[in-house]
Amino acid sequence: MNTRKILIVLGEPNSTFTEVLFKYFQSKKFKNNKSIIVLIGSKKLFEIQMKKLKYNLKVKEINNINQASLKIVNIINVNYKFKKPFSKITQNSNIYINQCFDLSLDLMEKKKANYLINGPVSKNHFLKKKYPGVTEYIAAKTNSKEPVMLIYNEKLSVTPLTTHIPVKNVSKFVKKKKIINSVIKIKNFYKRHFKINPQIAVLGLNPHCETTSKISEEKKEIIPAINYLKKGSIKISGPFPADTFFLKKNIKKFHVVLGMYHDQVLTPVKTLYKFKAINVTLGLPFIKVTPDHGPNYHMIGQNKSDPSSIFYAFNFLKKIK
To answer: What is the pLDDT, as a whole number, of residue 211?
Structure first.
């Protein structure tokens, strides 16, 4: 494929995702984009939401990717019954969302496209606690083991060792093998797509990397993992106390920070870079990107959503080799 092709699964129909896409498609960035973009979802809903939010875009329905064109909003239609442009999120959209993902993953498996961007889904209604997040959902559908969530920003990226699990369960998953697997996938990703051997920092689990109990995850799991990885060609340091790590003098030394749980690393990186970050799933047969926002149902239909993350997603895909 000479011209890169990007599939976009529209995801939860009652979200702000189409809004941020409208903002991107009306921008100069889209007009200068040299990749073909194909949406997977309901054409009728997309157009009605576009009219509701007062955007004017040319939408071309296609039956296969070979019919797609540059600088046009191409869409492969998936039927979806709805009454209003925007409604409350319920389980009524589950079959539709699943069909969209199945179609996109089939196209990716057949190498009809280069990259996949997915819109947000509801953890409560769509995933229904069967999967912690869309990362694990897609990993299961592609038979990919131990996916890694990388929240990417060109200045500093972060990875939570554990994703969407209760904090009380985190320590059960802080294991040497899991740390090693995550770090190796991070290193391979940076080497392949950015031609660099990244500097990786690892945070401890306990405050100040210390504990008064007999069990120390730092001593038992984290430090042995770091020592093992140091024997290879991996540039890794730690464990560092999380409370002081994200000072400017520290983070400028590293490309990636591996934390032990979700909010330990996502809170500081979102504070630093707001929506100029994306979720890249490592360990899949292809590159999958999720803009770093959820359905944002509080702002549905208001045309007030920040589109920075979808712009960042396209900039990222443009840069990688």
So the answer is: 77
